[in-house]
Amino acid sequence: NAFAFPDLNNAALNTRVKSAAIWPSGFVGAQAVTISAGSEFRIGSASWATSGTFNPGDRVIVRHTTANKASWRTTTTLTIGGVDGTFTSTTAP
What we know:
The chain is an all-beta fold. The protein has no helices and 8 strands. The protein has strands at about 10, 15-20, 30-35, 40-45, 50-55, 60-65, 75-80, 85-90. A 5-stranded mixed β-sheet has the order 1-8-7-3-5, with no helix packed on it. The chain has a 3-stranded antiparallel β-sheet with strand order 2-6-4, with no helix packed on it.
């Protein structure tokens, strides 16, 4: 199933921010996970990582560093088993 993280608006400049937690559904069995460069994800209470394995029912959070300019968007793409989901932060005006 497609999945996405809620966007984060009015974020501080050049700051590491986390997404809200989501529980992606529709996956059967363990799935490979990757994330766009410069970002990290956490599955459950595991350490932050750039690759790993997702199992059905796992909770996922992503994090990235916001832009260093006002009103700029930063988007991270997390891929689980070939399905992409995004997290976007926009810095404050």
